Amino acid sequence: MNRVKIMRDWLQSEHDIFLTEEVHNIISEEIKNETYSVEDIALIIHRLSEMPWTTQEDISKELNISKDKLKELNKVIYNNDFFQQLIVKEGLGRKYWNTMIPYIKNGVNEKVVNYEYQYPFRLALFPGLSCMYYCGFCGRNQNAKYKGDVMKEGNQRFKDIISNMPKHSTLSISGGLEPLTNSGLSDIISHAKSEGVRVPLITNGHMLTKKFLERNPGFWDLDSLRISLYGTNEESTYFVTRHKKAYQLVKKNMIEFLKMRNEKNPDLKFGLNYIILPENIDTILELLDYVNEVNSQVDNGRGVDFITLREDFGSVTEINDEVDKQVEGRKYHLEGLMTDEQRTQLIDVFKEFNDRKDKECPEMHVDFGYAMVALGDGVLGKPLARVSGEQMRKSGYPQMSVAIDSLGDIFLYREAGFLDRPGNQKFVAGRIGEKSLEDTLKDFINNKVQVDRTDSDCRFMDSYDHLMTLLVNQTESDMNFGVGSPVRIEREKQENQISNNWYKD
Q1: pLDDT tens figures, 380-389
Q2: Are residues 218 and 362 in the same domain?
Q3: Of 368, 389, 410, at which residue does a domain stop?
Q4: What range defines the domain where residue 373 resides?
Q5: Alpha carbons 131 and 113: distance in angstroms, whole number
Q6: Angle 151-163/185-194 helices, nearest 10 degrees?
Q7: Domain shared by 85 and 163, yes or no
Q8: 234-267 residue pLDDT tens
Q9: Where are the alpha helices (DSSP H) in 64-93?
């Protein structure tokens, strides 16, 4: 058997101090030195491959070894290419590593810890002024709408931000509220294109009609467009959105968009995002039926390029979240956190899904979310990585990521970027106005502004925010402990945008 396959199977199982003979022999052959404990090295590799945010102090305690001994073992791992491959590319945490590595390469995580300024690595623009849906897992104040008079100034501000972005920073446009409700969005996208900035757009697709696209040609300058799909039939779509026309309208819009895409800009990647909830596990296979039906009506070229499957882990849907339950106008809630039993059920569902996908849509890429990777591999793995409110960074990590709305408010966390959402104002780093984004953030970082967060504040974080928090907390812990990571990630200045490549691994 191929030794990579042997080690991958081992990494996908729960760690056991009693290694199989095959695994023991492979590690022993690599280290070529019997003075080092094969079992100790195995544990370090396994932990970091599955949970990349594991601290060196935790590893030291688990192995019951000194710092000096841990440094010796780390050096062996650091200098071994095969061990590096296992940690970063073969384990259940590989999706997390994909997100973390660009920040580590550029030392952004260390700058956060040291309160050193850097222009945000990722910028999320929230230009939407309203939303026609009332999704149960959405954390917004569902009565809130921006006044129309903010759009002109807000859109110019977005263009100025794009013009002044460094080459390595990455832009995305989403919400907040539905971005297509901003009638100037087409111009913003075209402006980004003229500045050499790649733009991925996330939309619910409700307004993406043929007439809308004919009036807004800037949409053909997008790098990718992803529609958030909330159901595979009228009943399931209404269940989530509470909009009776959503299913048929979005489906029709999708087909027309793909036909026009194939004529206007075949390089533009188009995909769907599907949030998996306990209530819709049984509809996942229907997603392929949906895609096949859409593709069958696109008669001039490619259909759907990718699907992203994401797990809602309860950050904004928890039924015990009394703060959000009391928001005026809140329609209803969905409970997003899945049990181990439900996740186990998904293993069989994903196997059938992957088998059918390979036969029916072989060219379509499926992007499993962080915790979905394990399930897609056929193993339970760990639930989605989360931190508590108490573990949140008191100053966020604006060097890594911020979200900006039409008022110019700079949000430390993307789930905080909803107009009038109770409790979110303390996560505003400042408002762009007399001062630029850069100067506003310099003041925030240099003054070491800290937020008095509570445990329930984790509702303002999405899966990316949880991971970035874990990364920075790990960095701070390792620095204080005095032992560096054994993962060899060469420091280099990022010159090109990392963007959101949902359409490829």
Answers
A1: 999 889 999 8
A2: yes
A3: 389
A4: 122-389
A5: 37
A6: 10
A7: no
A8: 888 887 777 788 889 999 999 999 999 999 999 9
A9: 67-78, 81-85
